[in-house]
Amino acid sequence: MKYIDEYRRPELVQGLLAAVGAKAAEIGREVTIMEICGTHTHAIGKYGLRRVLPANLRLISGPGCPVCVTSIGDVDAALHLAGLPGVIFATFGDMLRVPGTGGESLTGLRAAGADIRVISSAGDAVRFAAENPDRQVVLMGIGFETTAPTVAAAVLRAKQRGLENFCVFSVHKTVPKVIEALLADPELNIDGFICPGHVSVITGTEAYRVIPEAGRAAVITGFEPVDIAEGILMILHQIASGKFDVAIQYSRGVKEWGNARAREVMAEVFEPGDADWRGLGVISGSGLCIRREFAEFDALRRFDLPAPASAEVRGCSCGEVLRGVLTPPQCRLFLKACTPANPLGPCMVSGEGTCAAYYKYERDPG
Amino acid sequence: MRHERILLEHGSGGLLSHELITEVFLPLLRNPHLERLEDSAVLTVGERSICFTTDSYVIDPLFFPGGDIGSLAVHGTVNDLAVCGGRPLFISAGFIIEEGLPLEDLRRITLSMAEAARKAGVAVVTGDTKVVARGAADGLFINTSGIGLVEYPHPLSVKSIEAGDAVIVSGTVGDHGAAVLSRRRELGVISEVLSDSAPLNGLIAAILAASPRVHCMRDPTRGGLGAILAEIAKQSGRLIEIREKDVPVREEVRGICEILGFDPLFLANEGKVVVFCHPGDADRVLEVMRGHEYGREAALIGSVGERERGRLVLRTVIGSSREVDLPVGELVPRIC
Fold it and tell me: What is the rounded CA–CA span in Å between residue A15 and residue B123?
């Protein structure tokens, strides 16, 4: 397949890996690189990249899986909304199996009779609202700058069509603020970031300025093996030279200035607000709340939510995994109590989650 | 069982399906035939060995590119018999019809069944019809059972797999899954991929005639090639190694998978067989397969290792390796 196969060519990957090996040897000390985005974690696992990297290069996974960073309180709120009589709850598929306090999930609610529908784009939920005027449609707005503009566009469309039975439960989050939090975390010592390819299509390079300002490397990287190997090499070059910047490896997708139109749509409907991140706590200004002008589309204003009585699963280390402090095998529940078939924490549930990626791809093939 | 209710995922062909069978059905219905958990039961009647299988079809949409529920219901059962070494002879058809189904649809589907049965050389010899109220079913469900005559002298079973065996697949994987996905309107993908739904008894008879050392065959339907090989690795206790670059995948199927975030290894097939045979017979088997209309793109994709590990290992395109396990969860699109 043209445009994809060329980024998977074994000889190209091997050439880049040889250069990575040489550069890592030149740097000498241990180098820690965080991939923020869950799609990177999965690509690294799928192609077996971790196993062919030099020993002094450590890849850790960050808080880039939207489902995983959704707080248990927000999961419980979603379960509450989905269980309300007459509600059609529209969600992206990854949310389905995430357990709330007590272990119930959207899949379980659906089996018990709730009308929970998996969508592949936010527009599907607007269609449900138009087709079911006597029902309330709640769209779970989740994701980073990649999905937030599409949810914003759905709200604009619903307003334009005068759909009064459509609203959004927004747990959207944005990437720049969480990077600041990671940089400020004394437990972490990250030398460079593999910055997310898709988010950057929208944000451009501006979102990551704080990284070189803090003396760390930042490379916006694509998702194919050639991309990732090249992205890592570019990070090592910045570290070796001591000249830090936001570089773009994924130039076929990302422009320096991003997608201004998508950002406008997002800003028309959403405004920055506090967001509760699993593992990281509340980060001021890192969430996207629905603006007052669109209040009628805000599920939080339309429905009463019960007072929070949410509690994390005991022993679950998702918080530490999301900050890159622990790798999944270091969690005492991993592979024992917590498996994809019986996930206790969100990092095991979501297809994008770090624990799921380690379970699926990173067990020793022998 | 970890869930108090049946979830959609229990029907996915993955880990939860496996649990449902081994923790609910098998303990309550246990007997030596069922215990083998193969695609058909092989039974001795007088002097003869017969194989017997059943399968239900609930596909949405009823008509899809390259087939429909009627032809699929014939092919699926014919193939389940054939992979156990049976020559399919007779099948039954049970129809569960939702009130309101257009008669014209039922006619088209039945005609398609008749055509598929004729092509596969089987007769539909008995049947049943039930109609349920609107909403109690979705259009039409079909169950077929089949009986075949086993003539191959050796048992075809995961238990017969040996170290060194060649692993051969009869053609491109994921075609059926991709064709059905492309017709789900909510995904909005337009493609020309056709389902591979086909009767494999002719191809399989040719393979068995060409090699006296075929050890096991399976048709990788729900869960795809990845799930079936992971299951065989578990059941046989063997280490199975396959090379990603050698697994044939159609360009369009890869395209759909790239867009929707699926792995062709785990997409359903309805006209493919995976063969485990002695490595000395691999060339002969490949040649015979490639000479048959349903095996033109057959490929040697891997082998059975020496060590008994019960695992499936994939050699990745960049030359690294990873373990492949039974899929968990429904096939749902990613969210970022």
Answer: 59
Q: Do B7 and A147 touch (CB under 8 A)?
A: no
Report in angstroms the alpha-carbon separations of A30 from A27, A58, A62, A171: 8, 7, 18, 36
- Which ipTM was obtained for this model? 0.72
Which tokens is A11 given? Answer: 């000889």
Q: How far is CA B127 from CA B15, B96, B130, B137, B186, in A?
A: 32, 11, 10, 19, 35
Which chain B positions have a beta carbon within 8 Å of A366's beta carbon? 239, 307, 309, 311, 313
Residue B16 belongs to some domain of the structure: yes
Range of the domain at A186: 1-314
Give tens-digit pLDDT for A305-337.
Answer: 887 778 888 888 888 888 888 899 999 999 888
Q: Tell whether A231 and A309 lie within a shared domain.
A: yes
Chains A and B form CB pairs within 8 A to the count of 130
The model's pLDDT over A95-138, given as tens digits with 9 standing for 90+, comes to: 988 889 888 899 999 989 999 999 988 999 999 999 999 999 99
Q: Do β-strands B86-98 and B140-150 pair in parallel, antiparallel, or remain unpaired?
A: antiparallel
Q: What is the pTM of this model?
A: 0.82
Query: CB burial class (10 A; 0-12, 13-18, 19+) of residue A134?
Result: exposed
Q: Is the pLDDT of residue B333 over 70?
A: no
Answer yes or no: do A219 and A272 share one domain.
yes
SS3 B153: coil
Chain A residues lying within 8 Å of B330, measured CB to CB: 93, 96, 118
Asked if B319 lies within 8 A of A10 by C-beta distance, the reply is: yes
B16 at A interface, C-beta within 8 A: yes
> In terms of domains, do B110 and B180 share one?
no
- Asked if B83 and B124 touch (Cβ cutoff 8 Å), the reply is no
Same domain assignment for residues B47 and B77: yes
Can you give the residue range of the structural domain that contains B144?
Answer: 39-150
